[in-house]
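Handoff note, outgoing to incoming analyst
You'll be picking up this chain. Sequence as last confirmed:
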Amino acid sequence: MTPTLKTVAQEANVSVSLVSQYLSGSPAARMKAETKKRIDQAVAHLNYRPSAIARSLRQGRSHTIGMPIANLRNRYFATIADLVLAECNAHGYQLLMGYCGDGRQSELAATQMLLDRRVDGMFLLLSQEALQSTHIPAIAFDFAQDAVLCATRDYRDAFRAALSAQSAKSCTLLAPPCNDWNSQLSEVCLERSIPLDIIEFDFAQINDKSNFLRENVLLRAPETIFCRGWASAAALIHFCREKAPDFKPRIITDAPFFFPELCDERIAGTASVDLALFVHRCMEELIAEIERGEGKNFSSKARYFPAADFAKLFPEGERISE
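Most recent structure output, in case you need it:
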């Protein structure tokens, strides 16, 4: 039979309320050292473990963070999930993920499932309108959303350094629509009077990627390309190697982790934020909001790393070739 507070109290010959107060650390638990010793011995002898559900009901908190997520097979999402899980563990929280799949209805269902399980807060990788009518603490990871905390990345100094390093007279941006690179690189190029050609795309919705890159990139033959997203940069490198080996633009991408295509001679550098530190700060602000209502919006500055520095940025032991 699973031991309960009552059986612990009987074993220690004290009241149930006294055991409850003592185990919860209540200041009302005033007793002699001998009484505490008897309770500790009873807990050890019976192998008693406090009920997390009962504690949650008593405290009005589940000590759980919810995270709607689209695809754990995507290395970027999987890396973030692993970092969030480690942060939750370090702060005494559990991570509950809701699979979004494809489409808005799936996202709403995953979010509602997490809300129904009374999570204390939400770590958002995707915009969630379903949260706007709730008052649950949440943080938007790398995008802006009303009514929640927002954590963003500032790439402008990294872009300035990259443009100077490449002595760029013009450049092309390859990025999804409504992306932070679009507005920030546009601002930097405008202040430096550097022409910028923006090619917006959603690679997930493009069936013939080779034809898209041929018509939108190769025919324009840009010398300097800013490519948002490690997977997009990898696709561009594969296209160049297989379809246009003589096309060798200088490519600047963002690299949250090492991927083999970074070794290609076309990669000139990366504009990156330390992903582990970024997630750590996000979780600090989210937990501060959950526990004290004191979470804050913040922005982390990216740095430019030329290809020559990749050995320092990605030590050999941390590299994964997939």
